[in-house]
Amino acid sequence: MKGAALRATDADRVELDGLCTEASLEGASLVLDPAGALYWPQERALVVADLHLEKGSSFAARGVLLPPFDTAATLARLKSVIMRYAPRLIIALGDSFHDGRGPARLAPGDRAALLGLQQSRDWLWIAGNHDPGCAEGIGGRFAARIALGGITFQHEPAPQLQGVIAGHLHPMARLNVRGRGISRRCFVSDGRSLVLPAFGAYAGGLNVRHRAFAHLFGTGFIAHLLGQHRLYAVAGARCLPD
After folding, report:
1. Which among 133, 141, 169, 200 is most buried, taking Cβ atoms within 10 Å?
2. Strand partners, 28
């Protein structure tokens, strides 16, 4: 799978170079998908982070009205990625629901869609800070983290550990492209650990130049920005602060 590297060299020019949408971590070759999911061919494992299902209904319960279609939209995008890779294992890296009562608020159609995605495959829910415990009626199995082939999958990144794939931070990168600023969700990696973008339709983003990322990577990382059909790889030092 081929993508492109995007370098904002000045305010008026963007250079595109051929670059595989692949990353290597602890000897594993990983595919970074423009939808914001990660696929590990060797393990036939698909990984997504921060679905934040039922965020709309969570806000509605507090009097903030949002269109109540985020769960359906997120599951539809996830179905598309699952159909593309046909994984045997799906790992959801925590904050899969926006709050602990989210599973109970699932509409019958959305619950059926979620359970349908799990047919004939293993599904692992990793605990997050928004959804720390087990839940009934959503299928799958539950764990705080899982180690697979030398890589640890968990919700929050770990600054001092190698071989960790996590979510939690909702990375987003800002660039100046032809004189205008753009912001895109992105993967972030320094070759030692990797943070996935939030997959959920209503999930926000945190700038990769925020101190939370500096604590993990400094500026020695690559941000793989999500495009419609490809990823754009940008050195961390070229990303703009807020």
Report:
1. 200
2. 25
Measured in whole angstroms, the distance separating CA 72 from the mean position of its chain's CA atoms is 17
**Domain spans of the chain, in order of start:** 2-238
Q: Could you give the CA distance from residue 101 to residue 132 in angstroms, rounded to a whole number? A: 11
Q: Reduce the DSSP state of residue 222 to 3 states and report it.
A: strand
The tens digit of pLDDT for each residue in 105-144 reads: 999 999 999 999 999 999 999 999 988 889 999 999 999 9
- For 163-176, write each residue's pLDDT tens digit: 999 999 999 999 98
Is 186:225 a contact under the CB 8 Å cutoff? yes
Q: How far apart are CA 138 and CA 163, in angstroms?
A: 29
Q: In what order do the strands lie in the sheet with 22-25?
A: 22-25, 28-32, 38-40, 45-48, 89-92, 122-126, 141-143
Helix, strand or coil, per DSSP, at residue 232: strand
Rounded to 10°, the helix 108-117/70-85 angle is: 20
The conformational region for residue 52 under phi > 0 = left, psi -120 to 50 = alpha, else beta, is left
122: Cβ–Cβ under 8 A, 6 or more apart, which residues? 88, 89, 90, 141
Contacts of 166 (CB under 8 A, 6+ apart): 49, 93, 153, 154, 155, 156, 157, 158, 193, 194, 195, 196
